[in-house]
Design a protein that fits this description.
Chain lengths: 298, 313
């Protein structure tokens, strides 16, 4: 990609964040360009997650600002930032534990739906549906088959409510996303019963369901073995190929080097380097920062 | 102990208890919804119910309701009472949230601040009505004259009992569908299970919270109408005992659990009537709370367990 065709999606502009006397972020500036995978790395406690939280509206910066797609993010509420097109996953998994995997993803798709509370309660607004969208009659059980026929007749005669249509669309899209991340077979299991790796994938599916322009992954490979990391790498590439812009926070140097287009390095809340993976790898400051962490970073 | 009376008319006493418990259940849903999402006991909810009863009374007075209107006018009064009660209670509940709790939430106040605010608000509302409307019991016209609709053996079921139980169950089903099968219900469950994450996934947390207060208020308004029809009076402190009972019902069923509120309310109503029959009505409150204590000893999270998120289970 040449510099001329690149457009800035997210602009972190001289952001400083202080907690009491502690300076968590010190005058940090960088851009994320549309369509790239940007890595944000640094030793433990460098301010990666803090930076992330400022970008997703969890913390308000003490000074400086964050602009997303031309609009100021700073000071907005978390759900508004999500609606602007920023979605994220969490370093420590944060699913809705007592909902099924499918429902978890549907919470994400809901953020793009339009039915009002009244619409969801009374469903008076009816839409004509195409024959292929009518409820299926497929049961062998006589009674269930009868109720299915009644529902089909009802949908044919009165149409479906917008709420029902949006629910169906949300469900289809959520199933597609579960298939995309490879856990479709877990759709109806409660999230808390999923294996660790599948929970991480579910978080990615849920974030994608909100139709983000920027997908932020916070240490998605934490706790993964090498084979799982390789799978994850493939998944991140496939996500980028769909046209998403990805911000990847990662501790694992090899993973970051393998998948990112550019890398920003933080240390003690300051940006110490920025550039292509090769440039960053050879940067003496970065080598110094990571010195003694090689065992951790492998 | 009058066992002959209890077992001789067991069906009758059970029906009486279910009708009584239905009103508890509707008010209990308000406690349980708010607790399920915010982990907050909204003590002002009893006054949300009280405001509903006064709205019903006011509406009937303005419309010139008299005892035993014909069937046509009866339906008109019931509909008007339902709208008035629901609007007044719903508005009160949302106002309570907006005025008292929202600010505390944005300031990250400790749970005790919420608790004392809730108790204070409850007193403010009921005393304000005591000053405004007087402290005496206010009678209401008998809109639905008691009539036996049908009889099974020696169990007579009256029209008000039938209306009360059916209305409570229908509203419960409606609420259950709303919470489990709509996008707003999913939002409510998401906020109940993990509020911060829900917000980052695009759920408007403040709107969800307003919605649960509104739903709780609407149900309390419906309960206010049913109460007015059945008991035919109200008072500035009518919410106190009823609110306490409804809260008990919510805990008995498992606070935070919608179906638990229904079960808890019905069980509590039936126990009270049984106890009153066995001894005297002086003992019904004692029996209700003894049962609560015993149930909690064996099932600390109530009959159906806590958790709005697991309303499905």
């Amino acid at each position: 990609m040449s510099d001329l065709t690149r457009t800035v999606l997210l602009d972190v502009d001289h952001v400083t964040l202080k907690f009491g006397g502690v300076v968590a972020l010190n005058d940090v500036s960088f851009n994320i360009y549309r369509g790239e995978i940007l890595g944000l790395i640094g030793p433990n406690g460098a301010g990666k997650t803090t930076c992330f939280n400022v970008m997703t509206g969890v913390y308000k910066p003490t000074s400086g600002k964050v602009t997303f797609d031309g609009d100021k993010i700073t000071g907005r509420r978390p759900h508004e930032i999500n609606h602007m097109g920023v979605a994220r996953t969490f370093q420590n998994i944060r699913l809705f534990p007592e909902m099924t995997a499918l429902e978890n993803v549907m919470v994400g798709t809901d953020s793009r739906h339009k039915t009002s509370v009244v619409g969801a309660l009374f469903r008076l607004y009816r839409v004509r549906v195409k024959p292929e969208e009518l409820p299926a009659v497929d049961s062998d059980n006589g009674f269930i088959r009868f109720t299915q026929q009644v529902r089909r007749w009802g949908a044919k005669t009165f149409g479906l409510s917008r709420h029902t249509l949006e629910e169906r669309a949300g469900e289809r899209k959520s199933l597609d996303l579960l298939r995309f991340v490879g856990i479709e077979h877990r759709a109806n299991e409660e999230a808390r019963n999923l294996p660790y790796g599948d929970q991480r994938r579910l978080e990615i599916a849920r974030a994608l369901a909100t139709e983000p322009k920027l997908l932020c992954l916070d240490e998605p490979a934490a706790g993964f073995n090498p084979a799982e990391k390789e799978d994850l790498l493939q998944l991140i590439r496939r996500i980028r190929d769909l046209g998403y812009t990805v911000l990847l926070i990662e501790h694992d140097m090899r993973l970051v080097m393998g998948v990112t287009d550019r890398i920003v390095v933080l240390e003690f809340g300051k940006k110490i380097a920025e550039g292509s993976p090769a440039e960053v790898r050879d940067n003496p400051k970065v080598i110094a920062a990571y010195l003694g962490e090689t065992a951790d970073a492998s | 102990m009058n066992f002959d009376e209890l077992f001789g008319h067991l069906g009758q006493h059970t029906v009486d208890g279910l009708a009584k418990g239905s009103i508890y259940a509707l008010v209990a849903l308000g406690y349980t919804l708010v607790y399920g999402v915010l982990k907050l006991i909204n003590f002002a909810h009893s006054e949300v119910f009280m405001v509903g009863t006064f709205a019903v009374l006011g509406t009937w007075t303005v419309m010139g309701a008299t005892n035993n209107p014909g069937i046509g006018m009866m339906l008109v009064f019931l509909a008007a009472g339902l709208v008035a009660g629901a609007v007044a209670s719903g508005a009160t509940a949302v106002a309570v949230e907006r005025i008292a709790y929202k600010r505390l939430r944005t300031m990250n106040a400790p749970p005790l601040a919420f608790l004392i605010t809730a108790i204070g608000l409850s007193l403010v509302l009921s005393e304000a009505f005591g000053v405004w409307q007087g402290r005496l019991v206010k009678g209401m016209p008998t809109i639905v004259p008691q009539e036996v609709v049908f009889q099974i053996g020696n169990t007579a079921i009256t029209n008000t009992q039938l209306i009360t139980v059916v209305a409570a169950i229908l509203m419960m089903i409606g609420l259950d569908v709303f919470i489990n099968r709509t996008r707003y219900g999913r939002g409510v469950r998401a906020v109940a299970q993990n509020p911060d994450t829900a917000a980052l996934m695009g759920v408007n947390k403040d709107r969800v919270i307003m919605l649960i207060f509104l739903l709780g208020g609407l149900l309390a308004g419906a309960a206010a109408l049913l109460y007015s029809v059945r008991y035919g009076n109200t008072r500035f402190n009518v919410g106190f005992i009823l609110g306490l009972k409804a809260f008990t019902a919510a805990v008995l069923g498992g606070i935070g659990n919608l179906r638990g509120a229904l079960v808890g309310g019905l069980v509590l109503g039936v126990i009270e009537v049984y106890a009153a029959t066995l001894t005297s009505s002086n003992w019904e409150d004692v029996a209700a709370f003894v049962v609560l204590v015993v149930v909690l000893l064996f099932r600390p999270t109530g009959l159906l367990g806590e958790s709005l998120g697991r309303a499905r289970a």
